[in-house]
């Protein structure tokens, strides 16, 4: 069922479900979550709710995963009120929302420029005893003011919540991050807290360490970030892939591409394989340097490994080709993406529409715009502007 769902073959997935019933196998919550996720990926909310009803009729209660799947997909469709209502309905069902329920809501609020509400939701989440993770930190960091001081203050806030909510540590003796006036003092406070978290729970130490490394990398403190990685390992932590990805991006930004190769080798020696995010970082940096040969090299490497590039990776290369007015090659790569079963997003369509429009191919631009609407992708003002500009 999971494989059929990933390939958007939900009729096949449902056949497996009915075969289970026929053979007397009782579906469990994992079965329903898999099917619900598959239908939501296709935007079929009515089918997902029908399964929700079937689940309830079978006296199987939705769990935190069910809610997080629904919330994520409602947010993806821009139906924020529905997502918020679902989250608020969890407490009466004796369910505690996890960080994965809150994060997509905050992402959507940022997209709608409702930043003050993000702070309210974040405060509500932390006060309810939920442990934040590195994904939430990354979302918040990307939308906060730039500057090492801001990033370290946010890092300290997240680590205090991990220490209190995850490790049960008493943080009352810690200095309030708002009252620390220097980045050096913030770093010292964070490092002290990080050691305490790692002593209490190595898994949470991995998360906390990844957050700190990410903050340092974003602030341009590469050496300090590498030192933190070494300290984490010495403390018995196993750094997250997120931690390595933060360092890889920073090293690229510092022009240290050879060091990136060394870091990836170290990572692989520890049994940690690059993921789609790793390859996206590499492709994005190569495209920024307009080195399309290396960007295409990553694409070929992924395909040789049997790892399907995601739409964001294709978007980077298509955009770079478009900027260089290599429209025919961009068009070829767009078609290759479709052939490989990767669905274009609005960025893909917008990039190609803009490329066609700027090069006198208005008919193709209009055709692609119509295809985007047909595929249930709501055009933004940027897409309309690109089309009108033709």
UniProtKB/TrEMBL annotation:
An example Gene Ontology molecular-function term: mRNA binding
Pfam families linked to this entry: PPR (PF01535), PPR_2 (PF13041)
Top-level lineage group: Eukaryota
Q: Where are the PPR repeats?
A: 1-27, 28-62, 63-97, 240-274, 275-309, 310-344, 345-379
Keyword Repeat in the entry? The reply is yes
Please report which protein family the annotation says this sequence is part of.
Answer: Belongs to the PPR family. P subfamily.
Instruction: Supply the name of the protein.
Output: Pentacotripeptide-repeat region of PRORP domain-containing protein
Source species of the chain: Populus davidiana
